[in-house]
Amino acid sequence: MAAQVENLGTLERRISMSVPLVEIERRVDERLKQLARNVKLAGFRPGKVPMKIVIQQYGPQVRSEVLSDAVQKAFGDAIKEANLKVAGYPRIEQKTEASTESAPPQALEFSATFEVYPEIKLGNLSSQSIERPQLAVDDAAVDRTIEVLRKQRTTWSAVTRPAQDGDRVTVDYEGRIAGERFEGGSGTGTVFVLGEGKMLPAFEASLRGAKTGESKTFGLEFPADYGRAELAGKGASFSVSVTQVEEGVMPAVDGEFARRLGIADGDVEKMRAEVKANVEREVRKRVEARVKEQALQALLAAAPLELPKSLVQMETQRLMERAAADLQARGLKPDKVPLDPQVFEAGARKRVALGLIFAEVARAENLQPKPGQVRALIDAEAQSYENPAEVVKWFYLQPERLSEMESLALEANVVEWVAARAKVTEKAVSFDELMGSG
Prior knowledge:
The protein is of the alpha+beta class and 438 residues long. The protein is built from twelve helices and eleven strands. It has helices at 21-36, 51-81, 139-152, 201-207, 255-260, 268-302, 309-329, 341-365, 371-382, 388-397, 399-419, 431-435, and strands at 3-7, 12-20, 86-94, 107-116, 129-134, 155-158, 168-177, 180-193, 215-221, 235-249, 423-428. The strands form three sheets. Strands 6, 7, 8, 9 and 10 form a five-stranded antiparallel beta sheet that branches. It has a four-stranded antiparallel beta sheet with strand order 1-2-4-3, with helices on both faces. α6 (268-302) crosses α11. The longest helix is centred in the middle third of the chain and has 35 residues, at 268-302. The radius of gyration is 33 Å and the shape is extended.
């Protein structure tokens, strides 16, 4: 089997292959004979079906399978001989038919068009800058976190006074545009807290001062940049019935509150110490995330490369499928929210580029994580659970989860390698700035 490689572009290649017909016919004959030994057909004993009938029944399928195997082998041999690393899947096309009106060909001609992985050349990282946030967790940060925990445990009781910011209201509403109801414009038993921005500002403003049992009618205009294009900038009228107004009461910081947070003896100082440890752990994660994002950008800037279109398309499709699954998990139908591939392409390109660069840096610099590094990550993750030892055991019994931690350890090694070569400066940040960044 002979093969010839053509360069169609920076990454695109085409291989022309020929598969000898005599070899195809020999393999087809072998498979049909082997099949005839065990094939079962009505009216014949196993292994006694006439070869002519076996050929009629299974010949086309066997020939197709043999031809596919031969072409795949020819392609594999060709790329191995040419030392090519294929990205994505090849597009294989037959160039000639099996026979012509003149002399039949001696071989079947095929071409395979595909892309190869790019060569990755990492530039000088010393010109890249990384800013490492600095934040010490003090008593004020602990107090802020405890306030959040108290708010999360708010209890609600009905009130007869007018609704104000911070109150939880339950409403039935119906909206109309030009006198017509519209999708998503009505709800029954809708609950939200005034001032938290769950509803449109104009909608919430119209309900401040309303009491339980009161009905209101008002108009509003959807913002020009509203998420649903068919409603953006349009005016609507709403009829709203307030079925309940409730006032929130946050728990006191006492022994009972401490016990609700897992401190068995209700010691408030123990609770504060545990909250502080948790916040410090979260601060470390967020600092690492900030440094990691900058390190990844530094790698992208230092190693510009052309990306295989096939890999970008595959990653775009994967991101779209994940988005569709997320919509389904939220109770939405993906076909009702069309997903535009262009929205996901930039993210896909970044992920493909980083994956290629990461793999090359890890290989060239021998940055594969050691077992101790993986165990340290697992131990750190387990500390946020009630029984850390059981969590550690669970990780090592779940190959997929263990693989995820190995990937994180590799990622950490690459980030550390980048940080050691880039310009790293430290910058003091506020608690809100760091913790409010997602």
